[in-house]
């Protein structure tokens, strides 16, 4: 009798796995919809680069706040019960973009969007791990790790590409991308609504508290190394996304919205490619490759805009190499945290990791926007590339020494 129920249950959980992955992808893609549209907002309302920085900072405030306040609560309330409201919040953000089009509306929409992203990143990643375990027990977490990191990083690139293409060739470029994603997000909501949730919630439910470090004490060294990896990886990605459109328009005189979206897409797509290509690699080997590629990508990006004749091709190559490096390091960081964290506190551990990552993503973009008020775009890029590069070199030994300890793995298995 158990055998007759096992196959249908496995199929149902496997379908749920891909439903959650689709929802994760949709939310992350929506978060980068505004990136290639900022030029249009600037033309319409005369925004300065500093105002764009404020809008970006609003998104970062939403992400960081949600990771601290709510990124971990699916450990207590269940994955689906937390993921569904988070998707709904993303829909609300899209509606605010559609109906409140001036600067205050953009800031509010980005805060709401950031808040939903913070919840989704931790919850969906933990949800995928739970569904994989329910479907394929005893096979390790590699499949869920790879899918989670691919849809996370890939979604960021896909949203920018779609928005850029729609802005370039569809009518109403500040309306159509958001309207399209309202439909996509509603489909994602419906799919998750009927998905099973194998996570066992605690009974009685613990009292609410904000985010804390939720990994075994013996594994905290590995966790901090992983968090450091997420910070520097997203720092490189944030540096490129924060300045790419500035160089396309101001230095390379390229005003195409499709090109702006494609430039960001290339970077994140390269991160996805390297994550898939390094599937059989050890975490240490993946991290070593990622560190090397991030440093090379930074150098190529700086060279692209400092040449006597700035090069679009070299800028794209630099972005791709940077994205590949960031994707590799992020993959290693997520894999480490999933491996060392017990299932009943996995979302909380992942929320801490993503908190470090989004702080890294925000720092270069916000800092660059402030710096552009005082120095040239080329000097801004060089200065931040040096800072981020020194940070990568300074933390390399810690990153390469990361990994789940035997004691941490034992604690996870016993949980």
From TrEMBL:
<keyword id="KW-0812">Transmembrane</keyword>
<feature type="transmembrane region" description="Helical">
    <location>
        <begin position="258"/>
        <end position="279"/>
    </location>
</feature>
<feature type="transmembrane region" description="Helical">
    <location>
        <begin position="222"/>
        <end position="252"/>
    </location>
</feature>
<dbReference type="Pfam" id="PF07690">
    <property type="entry name" value="MFS_1"/>
</dbReference>
<feature type="transmembrane region" description="Helical">
    <location>
        <begin position="176"/>
        <end position="195"/>
    </location>
</feature>
<dbReference type="InterPro" id="IPR050171">
    <property type="entry name" value="MFS_Transporters"/>
</dbReference>
<dbReference type="InterPro" id="IPR020846">
    <property type="entry name" value="MFS_dom"/>
</dbReference>
<keyword id="KW-0813">Transport</keyword>
<dbReference type="InterPro" id="IPR036259">
    <property type="entry name" value="MFS_trans_sf"/>
</dbReference>
<dbReference type="InterPro" id="IPR011701">
    <property type="entry name" value="MFS"/>
</dbReference>
<dbReference type="GO" id="GO:0005886">
    <property type="term" value="C:plasma membrane"/>
</dbReference>
<keyword id="KW-0472">Membrane</keyword>
<feature type="transmembrane region" description="Helical">
    <location>
        <begin position="15"/>
        <end position="41"/>
    </location>
</feature>
<feature type="transmembrane region" description="Helical">
    <location>
        <begin position="106"/>
        <end position="129"/>
    </location>
</feature>
<feature type="transmembrane region" description="Helical">
    <location>
        <begin position="313"/>
        <end position="338"/>
    </location>
</feature>
<feature type="transmembrane region" description="Helical">
    <location>
        <begin position="82"/>
        <end position="100"/>
    </location>
</feature>
<dbReference type="GO" id="GO:0022857">
    <property type="term" value="F:transmembrane transporter activity"/>
</dbReference>
<feature type="transmembrane region" description="Helical">
    <location>
        <begin position="47"/>
        <end position="70"/>
    </location>
</feature>
<keyword id="KW-1133">Transmembrane helix</keyword>
<feature type="domain" description="Major facilitator superfamily (MFS) profile">
    <location>
        <begin position="15"/>
        <end position="403"/>
    </location>
</feature>
<feature type="transmembrane region" description="Helical">
    <location>
        <begin position="150"/>
        <end position="170"/>
    </location>
</feature>
<feature type="transmembrane region" description="Helical">
    <location>
        <begin position="350"/>
        <end position="375"/>
    </location>
</feature>
<feature type="transmembrane region" description="Helical">
    <location>
        <begin position="286"/>
        <end position="307"/>
    </location>
</feature>
<protein>
    <submittedName>
        <fullName>MFS transporter</fullName>
    </submittedName>
</protein>
<keyword id="KW-1003">Cell membrane</keyword>
<feature type="transmembrane region" description="Helical">
    <location>
        <begin position="381"/>
        <end position="400"/>
    </location>
</feature>
